[in-house]
Design a protein that fits this description.
Pfam families: Usp (PF00582)
Helix content: 25-40%
Strand content: 15-25%
Strand order of the largest sheet: 3-2-1-4-5-10-9-6-7-8-11
Distance between the termini: 43 Å
InterPro entries: Rossmann-like_a/b/a_fold (IPR014729), Universal_stress_UspA (IPR006015), UspA (IPR006016)
Organism: Reichenbachiella agariperforans
Number of helices: 10
Order of helices and strands: EHEHHEHEHEEHEHEHEHHEE
Protein name: Nucleotide-binding universal stress protein, UspA family
Number of strands: 11
Structural class: alpha/beta
Family: Belongs to the universal stress protein A family.
Length: about 300
């Protein structure tokens, strides 16, 4: 963990994201690049203008540079190296160019704000970044303290487990030193044997060197309801999920929840974009390496 990207629209939530990124950077001796986009999708003054003139663009660029300098100056005492990047490209284009060509490790951003970073998970810039960024993304919805993240929930789709995602989760466990709660939500449509799923999944997780974990099976009317209830009832500090073009776990959280439901998720969300062409893991093929699985079944009422 050496290089972190932080998109900003100069809102309070963007500043919360920067403050959290600084905590991460201080702990792991990383640097931060603040990024803002002058693209009309991101900047409200351009988006709402009837006519976009060169004078308006120059005014917006000068204002962005001034706000960027003020923001960096406020956090200059942190001891973390912070630089800036302003472009008229779309936000996701900027981020992926930086990630691909300059080897950034992580994006940290707010889930709502005064401009393009708003309405998280509803077609916004944040949702696009979550689905398309070429490195892990941490999305926060308010002030977040690194040392207060102790338990992370990882929803598992047993029909769509990819090794790349589990490897990233293993790296995250080592990075943040957290307890991992792997959760499979069983609905009325699932006919799999619970004990076998628990045993095989636990063996797979442990084979990657992940030690501080538990595996839980939650019964619920739908994956999304089970996940959100688990977060609330178990006092989860962060959710970690895989995404690839609104499939699997991402579809549960990005594609099927109403805005009202999503607004109840106040914990940070760590996401990783999987390669849709990557081979899925067949749980039956996992070599047996542990005798006892960490199996817990939590009954959830079906509404």
């Amino acid at each position: 963990m050496k290089k972190i990207l932080v998109p900003t629209d100069f809102s309070k939530l963007s500043e919360d994201a920067l403050a959290f990124a600084i905590e991460v950077a201080q702990k792991y001796e990383a640097t931060i690049t603040l990024v803002t986009s002058l693209h009309y999708d991101f900047y409200p003054e351009i988006h709402d203008a009837t006519i976009v003139t060169s004078t308006l663009l120059k005014k917006v660029e000068e204002s962005s540079k001034e706000q960027m300098n003020q923001l960096i100056a406020r956090y200059n005492v942190s001891g973390v190296s912070i630089d800036e990047y302003i472009s008229d490209e779309t936000l996701i284009t900027i981020l992926n160019e930086k990630i691909t060509h300059e080897a950034y490790d992580l994006v940290i951003m707010g889930t709502s704000g005064s401009s393009g970073i708003d309405e998280f998970l509803e077609g916004s810039n944040t949702e696009k970044v979550v689905r398309k960024a070429a490195c892990p993304v941490i999305s926060i919805s308010g002030k977040t303290v690194l040392d207060e993240i102790k338990r992370v929930m990882i929803p598992i789709d047993i029909d769509d487990i990819r090794m790349s995602f589990l490897q990233e989760v293993a790296s995250m466990e080592a990075l943040f030193n957290v307890q991992l709660d792997f959760v499979w939500v069983r609905t009325v449509h699932n006919i799999e044997n619970e004990e076998e799923i628990s045993r095989e999944t636990s063996k797979l997780i442990q084979s990657l060197g992940i030690k501080a974990f538990t595996f839980h099976i939650v019964r619920s009317v739908s994956p999304s309801v089970g996940i959100l209830r688990y977060v609330e009832e178990e006092n989860i500090d962060m959710i970690a999920m895989a995404t690839h073009a609104r499939k699997g776990i991402a579809h549960w959280l990005l594609g099927s929840l109403t805005e009202d439901t999503v607004n109840h998720v106040k914990v940070p969300v760590w996401s990783f974009k999987m390669d849709s062409d990557e081979k899925r893991i067949d749980l039956d093929s996992v070599e047996p390496i542990m005798e006892v699985s960490s199996y817990t079944k939590i009954e959830m009422p079906v509404d």
